[in-house]
Amino acid sequence: MMTPDTDVLDTGTGLQQLMGDRALYQQILQRFQQRYQDAPAQARAAQASGDTATAARIAHTLKGAAGMIGARQVARLAHALESAGNDSTLLALEAALQALLEQIDVLLRQQQPATPAPAYAASHMPTSMALLQHLASLLDIGDGAAVDVVEQSAVALTQALGEAGYSALRQQVLQFDYVAALALLPAELISP
Length: 192
What we know:
The longest helix is centred in the middle third of the chain and has 24 residues. It is globular, with a radius of gyration of 17 Å. Helix content is 76%, strand content 0%. It is mainly alpha-helical.
């Protein structure tokens, strides 16, 4: 039986996560669609090669990104895969992700803006320690908006982390290795 639409994609929860910013939510849905469509296949390949750590990291990142957009079913299955990955969980995750991607596609076609959505707006950019905390929270949940923050806050992040620190962080984020990128942020600056 098909799960309720809000279990596949609860847009209310996703918008609430972003304080009602529909344009940003739409951007994040597009990024999710582009970046996570192959996540189960990547996790399967990692498991097949015996790399359970990579499979768990992929599942963790997918779990955070799915939670951010309001995709409860995918988040639950990714969490189950992260905890104790097996073939049946992976098959269920593949099916749930496919249903989610289809629903995102329908939603994006329905809400196509007249003009392209702007890049992650500077008005979303907190400064100094708040910037690092914001970036850490995005990295922690695997949110693709972290790429925009790193790219558009290069000057502030270079001042906070130094040239080498920013360069290393940027490299990890652009490779979507959010766990490694998060580890590069100074703990004392990102602690709540």
